[in-house]
Amino acid sequence: MGLTAATGDIASKDVAVEWAKGQLAKEHAALLDYAKQGYLGNIEDR
Fold first, then answer.
1. What is residue 41's DSSP assignment?
2. What is the per-residue burial (b if ≥16 Cβ within 10 Å, else e) of 12-46?
3. At 40, is the secondary structure helix, strand, or coil?
4. Stated pTM of the model
5. Closest Cα to residue 40, out of 19, 5, 12, 20?
6. Which of 5, 20, 22, 41 is deepest in the core (most CB within 10 A)?
7. Where are the chain's structural domains?
8. C-alpha–C-alpha distance, residues 31 and 40, integer Å
9. Each residue of 1-31: pLDDT tens digit?
């Protein structure tokens, strides 16, 4: 939602994560990457 609110663009979650990483503090990047990998099915993120 942040990407859409800020830019008016609609994108998939994995694209939005890359945008969000640039908007937040660096220490949150690892958590966003983990969530992205779960969304993409690359890891089991229960």
1. T
2. eeeebbeebbeeeeeeeeeeeeebbeeeeeeeeee
3. coil
4. 0.71
5. 12
6. 20
7. 2-39
8. 14
9. 888 998 898 999 889 999 999 888 888 888 9
